[in-house]
């Protein structure tokens, strides 16, 4: 039970998210399907909050002492991610956001994708759906990759 709480909370951490939680789950030899479900819930829980409030909070904090530099960094990262998505996607922004979140590369994921969608003024429903499908895809990729990596290590 403790391992499930751990992967739930790991899934909520920016930059680590579901990707790290699925690796932890496969390394801890947890059942794949139940781990997958717990990781998805943990990764998706902050997404609506990020969409609705992150942009406002970051814009508010840009000129504040101590936090301004970090908030500027976050806004800049979101803008760059959004611009990259929009330039590559054109009208296929939904699919681009899904793939941006779903393909597990450093700097991509639900947090960055949701912030980028918010900065691009994508509608709430489309953003959440694209991010959710991306999280599902990332979970499958990381579950398969993690099982293969740890299965190979165990075989040796």
Describe the structure.
This protein is globular. Helices cover 79% and strands 0% of the residues. Helix 2 packs antiparallel against helix 3, helix 4 packs across helix 8 (124-155) and helix 6 runs antiparallel to helix 7 (110-119). The chain has helices at 2-12, 17-27, 32-44, 47-61, 68-89, 93-102, 110-119, 124-155. With 156 residues, it is mostly helical.
Quickly list its features.
156 residues, mainly alpha, 79% helix, 0% strand
What's the short story on this structure?
This protein has 156 residues and is mostly helical. The chain has helices at 2-12, 17-27, 32-44, 47-61, 68-89, 93-102, 110-119, 124-155.
Largest beta-sheet details = none
N-to-C SSE string, H for helix and E for strand: HHHHHHHH
Strand % is under 5%
Mean pLDDT: 89
Q: Residue share in helices?
A: over 70%
Helices, by number, come to 8
Which residues sit in consecutive blocks of at least 5 with pLDDT less than 50?
none
| Rg result | 16 Å
Which overall shape is indicated by the principal axes computed on the Cα atoms?
Answer: globular
What's the end-to-end separation, in Å?
29 Å
Overall domain count: 1
Structural class: mainly alpha
Number of strands: 0
Describe the protein's topology.
Layout: H1 2-12, H2 17-27, H3 32-44, H4 47-61, H5 68-89, H6 93-102, H7 110-119, H8 124-155
Helix pairs in contact: 1-2, 1-3, 2-3, 2-8, 3-8, 4-5, 4-7, 4-8, 5-6, 5-7, 6-7, 6-8, 7-8
């Amino acid at each position: 039970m403790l391992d499930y709480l751990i992967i739930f909370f790991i899934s909520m951490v920016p930059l680590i998210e579901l990707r790290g939680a699925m690796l932890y789950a496969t390394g801890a030899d947890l059942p794949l399907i139940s781990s997958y479900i717990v990781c998805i819930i943990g990764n998706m829980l902050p997404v609506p909050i990020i969409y609705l409030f992150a942009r406002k909070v970051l814009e508010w904090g840009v000129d504040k002492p101590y936090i301004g530099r970090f908030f500027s960094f976050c806004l800049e990262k979101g803008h760059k991610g959004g611009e990259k998505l929009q330039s590559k996607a054109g009208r296929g922004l939904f699919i681009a956001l899904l793939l941006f979140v779903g393909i597990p590369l450093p700097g991509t994921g639900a947090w960055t994708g949701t912030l980028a969608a918010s900065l691009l003024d994508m509608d709430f429903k489309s953003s959440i759906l694209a991010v959710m499908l991306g999280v599902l895809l990332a979970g499958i990729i990381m579950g398969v990759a993690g099982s293969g990596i740890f299965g190979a290590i165990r075989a040796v």
